[in-house]
């Protein structure tokens, strides 16, 4: 069920999200309750510095992620780009490569609360989306979606996901609440922690994220924050969203054009000092209009 909650005179057409148009065999979608404010979860979803620390062990012992163990720590980006667009923004991370250039990984923010990214190595991997939808001030519904635009998902590639090691979690029967939750300390496996095969002892990358986000309280007291250079994406995200709120009366909100959603995350190489913005055309799907940075 999709709901538009704005004024009737500004109601846009349904966004042309590619995953909604592929056959059911090409996608896998779940939802679950996250017990904190939606923006708290959303900010955590965009933070990238935690990846090689919080998820250390899980990625090191899998074949899915390109950065493994200590190599992921060494691969912390040399450059970040945050580009406002007509659908939301593009967040790019540039890591040094062997050719003295940068390998760029571009994730997409679709208005109002979607994140699309490509964490898997290889030329024919599925795409991931997350969306944090407010339930009330202190809870949100977290959607996790994986899809492939051209083919059905295979049992082999989805085994890791369906056994709750990725973004999907096991739910209490008849409920949308995770079996592993704040009331039972997420069933932390201390022996698994000691073994080095999981930094947290919590099953699943997505649940590891939620455990940290929920541990901050239902609504984090941001007056106690001390943001630094490693929090650049959080700072830019907040400024972006606050700017949209200020511009609301000027009728310039992004995401109103359904065709602007016809994009996929991208991974590509550029020379060391090349700007990212002129390369956003690489993110188009076959039937997409040209994607332009916002004025």
Describe this structure in words.
The chain is globular. The longest helix has 15 residues, at 232-246. The protein has helices spanning 38-46, 51-54, 69-74, 155-162, 190-195, 205-215, 232-246; strands at residues 27-34, 79-84, 88-96, 101-110, 114-117, 127-136, 139-147, 266-271. A hairpin with a 4-residue loop joins strand 3 and strand 4 (101-110). Strands 1, 2, 3, 4, 5, 6, 7 and 8 form an eight-stranded antiparallel sheet that branches. It has 295 residues and is an alpha+beta fold. The chain is built from seven helices and eight strands, in the order βαααββββββααααβ. 20% of the residues lie in helices and 21% in strands.
Summarize the structure.
Helix content is 20%, strand content 21%.
Beta-strand residue fraction:
15-25%
Give the structural class.
alpha+beta
Seen as an oligomer or otherwise, the chain set is: single chain
**SSE order, as H and E?**
EHHHEEEEEEHHHHE
Measured between the Cα atoms of the first and last residue, the distance is 33 Å
């Amino acid at each position: 069920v999709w709901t538009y909650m704005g004024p009737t005179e500004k109601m846009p057409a349904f966004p042309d999200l590619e995953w909604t148009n592929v056959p059911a065999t090409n996608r896998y979608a779940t939802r679950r309750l996250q017990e904190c404010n939606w923006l708290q979860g959303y900010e955590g979803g965009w933070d990238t510095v935690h990846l090689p620390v919080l998820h250390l062990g899980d990625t090191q012992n899998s074949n899915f992620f390109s950065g493994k163990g200590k190599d992921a720590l060494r691969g912390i980006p040399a450059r970040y780009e945050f580009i406002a667009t007509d659908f939301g923004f593009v967040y790019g991370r540039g890591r040094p490569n062997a050719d003295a250039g940068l390998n760029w990984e571009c994730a997409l923010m679709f208005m109002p609360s979607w994140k699309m990214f490509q964490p898997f190595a290889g030329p024919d991997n599925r795409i991931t989306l997350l969306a944090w939808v407010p339930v009330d001030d202190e809870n949100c519904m977290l959607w996790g979606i994986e899809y492939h635009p051209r083919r059905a998902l295979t049992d082999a590639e989805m085994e890791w996901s369906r056994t709750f090691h990725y973004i999907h979690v096991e739910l209490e029967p008849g409920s949308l609440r995770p079996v592993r939750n704040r009331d039972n300390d997420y069933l932390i496996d201390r022996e698994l922690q000691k073994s080095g095969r999981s930094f947290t002892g919590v099953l699943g990358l997505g649940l590891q994220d939620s455990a940290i986000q929920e541990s901050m309280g239902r609504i984090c007291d941001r007056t106690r924050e001390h943001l630094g250079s490693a929090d650049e994406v959080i700072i830019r995200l907040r400024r972006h969203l606050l700017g949209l709120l200020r511009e609301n009366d000027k009728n310039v909100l992004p995401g109103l054009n359904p065709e602007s959603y016809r994009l996929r995350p991208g991974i590509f190489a550029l020379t060391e000092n090349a700007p990212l913005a002129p390369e956003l055309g690489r993110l188009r799907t076959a039937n997409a209009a040209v994607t332009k940075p916002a004025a």
